[in-house]
Amino acid sequence: MRSRSGGTTWSACVTPADSPATDGPGTVTIVRSRYGGIYEPGEWVAFACWPADIPPDWNADDVTCAEFFAARGEEIGGGATPQEAYEDLLRRLAGRRRRLGLED
User: Fold this and answer.
1) What integer is the mean pLDDT of 14-38?
2) Among the four residues 1, 17, 72, 78, which has the most C-beta atoms within 10 Å?
3) Is 36 left (phi over 0), alpha (psi -120 to 50) or beta?
4) Nearby residues of 88 by Cβ (< 8 Å), 6 or more positions away
5) pLDDT above 70: residue 30
6) Are the C-beta atoms of 43 and 37 separated by less than 8 Å?
7) Left, alpha or beta for 77 (phi > 0: left; psi -120 to 50: alpha)?
8) Which of 9, 14, 56, 6 minimizes the C-alpha distance to 31?
């Protein structure tokens, strides 16, 4: 799927089936946030997808970036270090799976 800006839509990145409770996300991309954690969940941000599949709005202008992260709070990890961002992503995805009733 492609968004209007030409990138892959977010549904291609994080889906419940891609993140089984016991295995965690299959692919994780960790990047330094554009705004240093002002809009993002931390200085480092972890996405459960390949780099090419991250929607471009994560790195856009202030308003677009703020809206992107506000709408996806349970799908993206963040922290002061790459390791903290990864651990936060795992925590958020586990919480999401619990809310969706996908855990055994």
Assistant:
1) 73
2) 78
3) left
4) 41, 42, 46, 77, 78, 79
5) yes
6) yes
7) beta
8) 56
